[in-house]
């Protein structure tokens, strides 16, 4: 019934086994050892927290554990033989034994239950499903164990430890006859709802009597009649272990929803069951139980998480009370004084002082890295990410940047102050010392030394106080199962603190072997994870160039890779390098270096030989420079971030071919901005040079060998013309000249970065046309290899394709301006064909684009570089002209367009006249239209006095010369239909004469049957729409004007309509009437009518002027006792003040003269052939909450609109509440048949396609598979 009631939340699931959060370099990280509690947790497989809690309870039930271990292989078999045919191997108890041995003896933080769940027969989906109850699992697991232990000495294990008997008695009050029935139990299910404690629930179960009296009498077997009787229950036999299952989850059948009882429900640590037993003459020890396990459920009825509080009866774990409880009073006082003094000096916005104060207040003077964030939140009230991450970065980076204050110890798992760092020995012994010192304190605080409680939450095990159990009396996190044991069950002294007690020797050997394997894995992993790869750079293989370290040669002989343990000291590393470099003489300095684009740079030197590499901040792939600490090849080397070198691109004028040169300092330079060699034009030569960041600009000029008169310029990013920088395709670029004062500033002060360009110019450079100076800005104009345009000559000649191909000629020319005369000179052999030529671009499809303006530059004309231009016969437009295509009469087709050049200032009328003159047409009944996006004739150019530039007509656009005068502005063409009521025509067909209008309509119908449409109203063809023509009207006209113009249509001229208010106009969409146009004086533009919108007119018997919130509904009263309706009527419902169902019901009641409470309403849905009932139920809202907005029928889910059909049932005379008619049933049957046909078609396509649709998995109850051992 509860489905996935106990599904585990994701955030409460599997806890990572990594204690430090480190990432392994290679291989899988071994499981971490046990924590300070010395107890082992159980891994969560994704949704097995309920199983983990129950298994831990059974483990800490010593009698159950020892009984299970007493079963040897001779009775259970061996797991190695489970796959052999005919072998009887009891897999479940064997796997349970092995799991218990691992939990007791193997040194790991958590054990896996994968083998155990496999023995249950659970697959991965059942394991990760998590939708099961721990109370259900308790019964199923005990049943599986009983079946698995049949025929062994442990066959009565569950019965002896957990089996009890309840006696149900019924006493006849007439004759005193007692009828008894015994009932076995393994756990007691006690009620939570309506009771406040466990004792009260047991009192109601076993002390209170249930009476059979009144209408509920009991038939006595001795009296042979119905008599008054009393029913009661008593505990007849008590088991050694009593399990209480609390009914926390219930189902509310009134609200049809699940809920969890979260009220207070107390339970004692010790309970006496004597009042609830049948025999009470034994000693108190036979009835007294003490609590030793509490399984807790956290969450609600739709999801949650289980964990367990367990009392360590055999004292297997090391219990640690909270810090505030285990410190002596003197230490507490000292701690409070330190806290007060530190808080006084604490600066709220200074993370350095906050973290320092947090570490100083710790007893061990260190904090786990994983816990530092939580302690910071407890201290400041906000997290690091929310308060300090934006200005200071991640907390780990902040600690590294303050290495003078903080130091990482314990292999990087803890952070301490550098003034008092912890040694590994001190850090390792701290927990044991703290535990030893805390023992007397715990006893002095009144906590019994043998009452050690732990919280086992999957992989996590923590110590708790006994008083913490009371916190689980109530709330979303509350007790769910209680486990009691008899107080007379004493444990032998040799079992205390001895996890190997009564554990079989082969399991002890298995655990020892596994511990050795884990220890070896941890050592190997620790060594691998603490090994860093260092890159050593030796000083003899480097030289300094402009203050930058550069390798002497490109061979990698000066760099050595070294693998080293980061836990060792700097002195150990220095000795190792001494041994590697036997010929090294003198002092050896190790300096942290970094490879930058300009070269190798040095930072801080490692001077303290006693510091480990980890504490010194040395990580893998760190570069170290090995030198004497003073000079390299006789030159001093500057270290530190302020001297970081910068790689600059030095740009110089160049006047020869573009070939690569070898610079003086080994840096390649290349001329990228020269033109073709035949032109001999100037270019720029670039070379990459590195300089120390602390060098001044004047020192850079001297290093380049330039005189003091030379100018140094920085590329002006915003000064580029056309997006082309110097050397990036030619063109022009702007450079800013450094003023004389900047010569004394360093490269860092000038904010020069790697890759920045530096132009070096001598004074005579300005004699060239390439360089020009205006103030402090230098403009460089350079041609380039890529600034070419390929020109193809296309003469208009006759002949075959081969002859035309021979006449074509191509040339590749560099130039800055387009001048067709220049090309005529190039193609002088073909100039006789045509006197006028123009340049035209060719698009990707081979179509010629408009000619290029001769007066513009290449860039301004929009001509892209490295493209092809065609030299074609014809004139080129000037800058003030447009080149247009035009056609006459219809949309243009290939080869039918004509070209014309007109001024941009021409009006539409002047352009039209020029086009008509070009084709030899005359007259005034012409106008121009543009093409729309799909290359069809579009909207006309309405303003004939507007210029082409004002209408944003551009070169290359196509215009269509269309015959006819311009239509008026706001011109609409609206198709008009006539609404014909068929029911009225059927009534009038008995007459001998028809009205002229009806004769016209009928004539139109018979003449052209395609002009009629039938509208189905609730299953019958009650109306028909007939096309009567189109009206042409301005959108500024009013609705009254539209009605007047509609009546002028030939088909409707003989209709008798007194005034326009007797005519109703509908707007149609998809062949349906959707809305009525309202407002006689509202313009068609405000009514949002567009050209081509279908309209339908309907003649009325009375005037009508509907308001904006008045809805026209078709109402139909149901025929009592039949599945049909009376003929429909029209009702105008005013919803302006109230649009609720009550308002509609009141209007209908007034229309029919009935009571509103007797009416049942429904809206017809013609698409589904169904009726949607309009309920008068209103939701009850609490007084404390805001008043709920009344339900409007104009909104969802009904959306009442004009023309909707409303069905009405009078409940006073009609008991049938079903609105569906026979026609609706037929329509629904048709819809089902269509759906079935579509489904069969999809199935056929699926069977022919990829495969079948996967069926949905059925929900199954929890079960454990057990073999047959009888």
Which key phrases capture this entry?
Ubiquitin-like (UB roll); 28% strand; 28 helices; 1270 residues; Papain-like_cys_pep_sf; USP domain-containing protein; cysteine-type deubiquitinase activity; USP_CS; disordered N terminus; UBL_USP40; 60 strands; alpha+beta; eight-stranded mixed β-sheet; nine-stranded mixed β-sheet; 23% helix
Q: How much of the polypeptide forms β-strand, as a percent range?
A: 25-35%
Shape: flat
Which assembly state applies to the chains in this document? single chain
- How many beta-strand segments? 60
User: In percent, how helical is the residue content?
Assistant: 10-25%
- Which regions are unreliable across 5 or more consecutive residues at pLDDT < 50? 1-23, 341-346, 420-449, 656-682, 719-730, 797-807, 812-834, 985-1010, 1017-1021, 1178-1188, 1250-1259
Rg (CA only): 49 Å
Notes on the protein architecture:
There is one protein chain. The protein is of the alpha+beta class and 1270 residues long. The chain has 28 helices and 60 strands. The strands form 14 sheets. The protein has a nine-stranded mixed β-sheet with strand order 32-33-34-31-37-35-36-39-38, with no helix packed on it. A hairpin with a 4-residue loop joins strand 11 and strand 12 (257-260). Helix 11 (329-345) runs antiparallel to helix 12 (351-361). The longest helix has 27 residues, at 1222-1248. It is flat and about 130 Å long. The protein starts with 40 loop residues before the first strand and ends in a 22-residue tail after the last helix.
């Amino acid at each position: 019934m509860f489905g996935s009631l106990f599904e585990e939340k994701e955030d409460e699931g599997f806890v990572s086994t990594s204690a430090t959060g480190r990432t392994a370099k290679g291989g899988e990280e071994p499981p971490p050892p046990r924590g300070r509690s010395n107890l082992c947790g159980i891994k969560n497989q994704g949704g097995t927290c309920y199983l983990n809690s129950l298994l831990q309870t059974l483990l800490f039930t010593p009698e159950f554990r020892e009984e299970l271990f007493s079963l040897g292989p001779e009775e259970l078999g061996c797991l190695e033989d489970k796959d052999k045919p005919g072998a009887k191997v009891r897999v479940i108890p064997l796997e349970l034994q092995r799991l218990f041995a691992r939990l007791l003896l193997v040194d790991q933080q958590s054990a896996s239950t994968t083998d155990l769940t496999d023995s249950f027969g659970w697959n991965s989906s059942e394991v990760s499903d998590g939708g099961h109850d721990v109370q259900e699992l308790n019964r199923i697991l005990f049943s599986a164990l009983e079946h698995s232990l049949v025929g062994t000495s442990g066959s009565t294990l569950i019965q002896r430890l957990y089996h009890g008997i309840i006696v149900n008695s019924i006493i006849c009050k007439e004759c005193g006859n007692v009828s008894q029935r015994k009932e076995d139990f393994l756990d007691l299910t006690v009620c939570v709802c309506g009771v406040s404690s466990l004792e009260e629930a047991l009192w109601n179960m076993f002390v209170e009597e249930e009476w059979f009296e009144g209408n509920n009498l009991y038939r006595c077997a001795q009296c042979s009649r119905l008599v008054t009787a009393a029913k009661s229950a008593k505990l007849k036999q008590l088991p050694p272990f009593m399990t209480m299952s609390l009914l926390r989850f219930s189902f509310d059948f009134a609200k049809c929803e699940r809920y969890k009882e979260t009220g207070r429900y107390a339970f004692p640590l010790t309970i006496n069951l004597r009042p609830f037993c049948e025999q009470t003459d034994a000693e108190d020890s036979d009835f007294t139980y003490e609590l030793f396990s509490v399984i807790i459920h956290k969450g609600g009825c739709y999801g949650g998480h289980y964990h367990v509080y367990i009392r360590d009866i055999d004292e297997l774990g090391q219990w640690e009370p909270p810090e505030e409880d285990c410190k002596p009073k003197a230490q507490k006082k000292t701690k409070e004084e330190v806290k007060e003094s530190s808080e006084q000096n604490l600066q709220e916005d200074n993370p350095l002082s906050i973290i320092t104060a947090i570490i100083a207040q710790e007893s061990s003077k260190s904090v786990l890295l994983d816990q530092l964030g939580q302690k910071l939140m407890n201290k400041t009230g906000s997290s690091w990410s929310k308060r300090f991450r934006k200005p200071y970065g991640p907390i780990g980076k902040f600690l590294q940047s303050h290495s003078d204050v903080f130091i990482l110890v314990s292999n990087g798992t803890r952070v301490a102050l550098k003034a008092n760092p912890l040694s590994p020995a001190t850090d390792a012994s701290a927990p044991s010392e703290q535990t030893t010192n805390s023992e007397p304190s715990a006893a002095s605080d009144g906590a019994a030394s043998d009452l050690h409680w732990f919280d086992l939450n999957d992989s996590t095990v923590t110590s708790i106080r006994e008083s913490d159990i009371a916190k689980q009396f109530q709330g979303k996190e509350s007790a769910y199962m209680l486990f009691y044991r008899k107080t007379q069950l004493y444990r032998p002294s040799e079992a205390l603190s001895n996890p190997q007690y009564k554990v079989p020797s082969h399991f002890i050997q298995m655990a020892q072997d596994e511990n050795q394997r884990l220890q070896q894995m941890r050592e190997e992993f620790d060594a691998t994870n603490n090994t860093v790869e260092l890159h050593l750079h030796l000083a003899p293989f480097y030289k300094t160039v402009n203050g930058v370290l550069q390798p002497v040669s490109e061979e990698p002989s000066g760099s050595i890779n070294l693998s080293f343990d980061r836990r060792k000291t700097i002195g150990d590393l220095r000795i190792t390098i001494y041994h590697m470099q036997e010929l090294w003489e003198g002092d050896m300095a190790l300096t942290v270096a970094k490879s930058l684009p300009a070269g190798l740079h040095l930072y801080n030197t490692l001077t303290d030989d006693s510091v480990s590499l980890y504490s010194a901040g040395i990580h893998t792939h760190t570069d170290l420079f090995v030198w004497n600490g003073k000079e390299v090849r006789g030159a001093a080397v500057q270290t530190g971030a302020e001297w970081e070198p910068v790689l600059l691109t030095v740009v110089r004028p160049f006047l020869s071919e573009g070939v690569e040169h070898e610079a003086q300092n080994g840096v390649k330079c290349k001329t990228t901005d020269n033109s073709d060699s035949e032109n001999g034009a100037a270019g720029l030569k670039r070379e990459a040079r590195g300089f120390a960041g602390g060098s001044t600009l004047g020192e850079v000029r001297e290093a380049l060998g330039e005189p003091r008169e030379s100018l140094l310029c920085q590329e002006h990013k915003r000064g580029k013309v056309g997006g082309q920088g110097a050397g990036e395709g030619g063109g022009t670029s702007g450079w800013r000249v450094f003023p004389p004062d900047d010569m004394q500033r360093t490269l860092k002060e000038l904010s020069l970065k790697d890759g920045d360009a530096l132009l070096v110019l001598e004074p005579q450079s300005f004699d060239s046309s390439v360089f020009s100076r205006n103030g402090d800005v230098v403009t460089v104009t350079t041609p380039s290899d890529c600034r070419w345009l390929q020109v193809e000559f296309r003469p208009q000649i006759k002949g075959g394709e081969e002859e035309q191909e021979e006449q074509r000629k191509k040339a590749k020319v560099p130039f800055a301006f387009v001048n067709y005369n220049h090309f005529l000179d190039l193609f002088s052999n073909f100039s006789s064909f045509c006197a006028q030529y123009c340049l035209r671009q060719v698009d990707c499809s081979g179509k010629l684009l408009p000619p290029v303006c001769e007066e513009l530059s290449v860039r301004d004309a929009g001509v892209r570089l490295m493209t092809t231009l065609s030299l074609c016969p014809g004139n080129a437009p000037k800058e003030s002209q447009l080149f247009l295509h035009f056609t006459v009469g219809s949309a243009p087709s290939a080869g039918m367009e004509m070209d014309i050049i007109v001024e941009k200032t021409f009006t539409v009328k002047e352009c039209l006249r020029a086009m008509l003159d070009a084709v030899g047409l005359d007259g005034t009944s012409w106008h121009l239209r543009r093409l729309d996006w799909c290359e069809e004739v579009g909207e006309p150019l309405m303003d004939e006095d507007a210029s082409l530039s004002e209408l944003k007509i551009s070169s290359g656009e196509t215009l269509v010369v269309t015959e006819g005068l311009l239509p008026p502005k706001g011109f609409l063409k609206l198709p008009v239909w006539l609404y014909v009521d068929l029911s009225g025509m059927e009534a009038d067909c008995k007459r001998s004469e028809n009205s002229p209008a009806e004769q016209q309509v009928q004539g139109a119908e018979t003449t052209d049957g395609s002009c009629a449409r039938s509208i189905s109203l609730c299953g019958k063809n009650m109306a028909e729409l007939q096309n009567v023509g189109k009206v042409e009207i301005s959108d500024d006209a009013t609705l009254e004007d539209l009605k007047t113009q509609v009546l002028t249509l030939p088909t409707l001229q003989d209709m008798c309509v007194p005034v326009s208010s007797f005519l109703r106009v509908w707007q149609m969409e998809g062949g349906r009437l959707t809305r009525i146009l309202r407002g006689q004086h509202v313009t068609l533009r405000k009514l949002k009518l567009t050209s081509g919108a279908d309209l339908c007119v309907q003649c009325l018997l009375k005037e009508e002027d509907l308001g904006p919130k008045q809805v026209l509904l078709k109402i139909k009263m149901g025929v009592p006792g039949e599945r049909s309706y009376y003929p429909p009527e029209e009702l105008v419902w005013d919803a302006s003040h109230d649009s609720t169902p009550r308002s509609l019901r009141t209007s209908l009641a007034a229309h029919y003269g009935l009571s509103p409470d007797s009416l049942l309403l429904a809206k017809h849905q013609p698409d589904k052939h169904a009726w949607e009932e309009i309920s008068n139920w209103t939701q009850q809202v609490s007084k404390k909450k805001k008043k709920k907005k009344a339900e409007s029928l104009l909104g969802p889910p009904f959306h009442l609109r004009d023309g909707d059909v409303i069905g009405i049932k009078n409940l006073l005379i009609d008991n049938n509440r079903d609105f569906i008619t026979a026609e609706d049933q037929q329509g629904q049957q048709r819809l089902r048949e269509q759906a079935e046909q579509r489904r069969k078609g999809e199935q056929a396509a699926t069977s022919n396609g990829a495969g079948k649709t996967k069926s949905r998995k059925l929900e199954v109850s929890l079960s454990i598979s057990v073999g047959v051992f009888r």
